[in-house]
């Protein structure tokens, strides 16, 4: 089959690789109909996350059609159109029983690679380094899905492929951020980053009862999409201080909760940008964490800070601000299995259409160009849908 593979830092290629096979009786094979670029992939593409090996198929956000089923699978059959969360759950360990699916104790076969760094392993994820399981990813014609009964969600007829695609990762990640904020009616939620996850976080905050969602970014085409989702915007490059603007629009108090949807390769301005870029380029830190620091400073006293961005070793983390303002810090990789059925309802009600995140639609053979466009934000690119 054809697949997009990682061969080294900023070295991608579309190559012919072996087709996936059923390994365990609870596996299925899915013919990928749609997969998409994701900002999380840029971190290992740029060399800031270790654990990739030459020839690894990457990609973790996808939907498709089941073409082969293991003998122990009961809830999924050949021909089903399914969306699959990016993190793999077993649905029987302690963490899965508590709806913490990305923390599954069962699905990471390389737990020993994470244990020294994290203290305990996460669940496995498709196409996202060997410490996260070493699973082949979704930028391919076919993919093996373990524990299919826990991870395959049959897509209703009224949901399009394009809408289902982002229910794999971007929608549940953004929605989980809003869920973390403990929103009460009328709250103001500020979101750093208007990529797909940030936009979904803003939309989700409004769906969960927030009075206002304010998105901070710098790219004009993202602002128009944020407005379509009902959010207000701040261009951080056009104001002297994002914190001052947020205090002004919230009567001096600050947002009730903040969501960081940027992660380790964020942009900022002035000396902070120079400092972070220099240390990152010299590998003295992995993270340009300006957005996270700014979000913590901007949040009102007693508020919630939800962190969705991927981070490694963060310098200048303002722990004193967190403690003295009485803030609650909440973070996780997304628990998609908890939320996907709710997304189907939102689409049916006309409250959510994630397909508008697609700005470019290309064949998988153009995957290298897709990531160049996505990384550089060329031609107004927000997300590229890849069709194997």
UniProtKB/TrEMBL annotation:
Q: Where is the Alcohol dehydrogenase-like C-terminal domain?
A: 196-263
Keywords, alphabetical = Metal-binding, Oxidoreductase, Zinc
Identify the InterPro entries for this entry. ADH-like_C, ADH-like_N, ADH_Zn_CS, GroES-like_sf, NAD(P)-bd_dom_sf
PROSITE patterns linked to this entry: ADH_ZINC
Family per record: Belongs to the zinc-containing alcohol dehydrogenase family.
| Record flagged with keyword Transmembrane helix | no
Q: Give GO terms: molecular function aspect only.
A: oxidoreductase activity; zinc ion binding
Which cofactor(s) does the record list?
Zn(2+)
Organism for this UniProt entry: Mycolicibacterium bacteremicum (Mycobacterium bacteremicum)
Superkingdom of origin: Bacteria
This protein is called Glutathione-dependent formaldehyde dehydrogenase
* Domain Alcohol dehydrogenase-like N-terminal residues, every copy: 25-156
């Amino acid at each position: 089959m054809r697949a997009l593979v990682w061969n080294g830092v900023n070295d991608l290629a579309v190559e012919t690789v072996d087709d996936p096979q059923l390994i365990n009786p609870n596996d299925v094979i899915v013919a990928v109909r749609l997969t998409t670029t994701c900002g999380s992939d840029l971190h290992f593409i740029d060399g800031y996350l270790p654990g990739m090996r030459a020839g690894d198929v990457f990609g973790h956000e996808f939907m498709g059609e089941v073409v082969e089923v293991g003998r122990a699978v009961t809830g999924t059959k050949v021909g089903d159109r399914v969306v699959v969360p990016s993190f793999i759950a077993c649905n029987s360990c302690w963490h899965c029983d508590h709806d913490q699916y990305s923390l599954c104790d069962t699905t990471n076969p390389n737990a020993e690679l994470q244990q020294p760094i994290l203290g305990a392993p996460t669940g496995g994820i498709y196409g996202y380094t060997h410490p996260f399981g070493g699973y082949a990813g979704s930028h391919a014609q076919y993919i093996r899905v373990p524990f299919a009964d826990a991870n395959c969600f049959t897509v209703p007829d009224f949901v399009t492929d394009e809408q289902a695609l982002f229910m794999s990762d971007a929608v549940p990640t953004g929605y989980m951020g809003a869920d973390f904020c403990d929103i009460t009616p009328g709250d103001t939620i500020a979101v750093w980053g208007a990529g797909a996850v940030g936009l979904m976080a803003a939309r989700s905050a409004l769906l969960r009862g927030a009075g206002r969602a304010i998105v901070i970014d710098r790219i004009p085409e993202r602002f128009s999409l944020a407005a379509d989702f009902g959010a207000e915007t701040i261009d951080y490059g056009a104001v002297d201080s994002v914190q001052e603007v947020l205090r002004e629009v919230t009567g001096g108090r600050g947002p009730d909760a903040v969501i960081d949807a940027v992660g380790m390769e964020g942009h900022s301005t002035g000396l902070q940008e120079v400092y972070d870029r220099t240390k990152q380029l010299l590998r003295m830190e992995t993270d340009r964490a300006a957005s996270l620091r700014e979000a913590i400073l901007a949040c009102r006293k007693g508020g919630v800070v939800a962190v969705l961005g991927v981070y490694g070793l963060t310098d200048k983390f303002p722990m004193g601000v967190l403690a003295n303002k009485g803030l609650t810090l909440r973070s996780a990789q997304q628990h998609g299995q908890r939320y996907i059925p709710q997304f189907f309802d939102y689409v049916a009600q006309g409250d959510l259409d994630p397909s508008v995140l697609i700005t470019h639609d290309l064949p998988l053979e153009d995957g290298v160009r897709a990531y160049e466009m996505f990384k550089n934000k060329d031609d107004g690119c927000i997300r590229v849908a890849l069709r194997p």
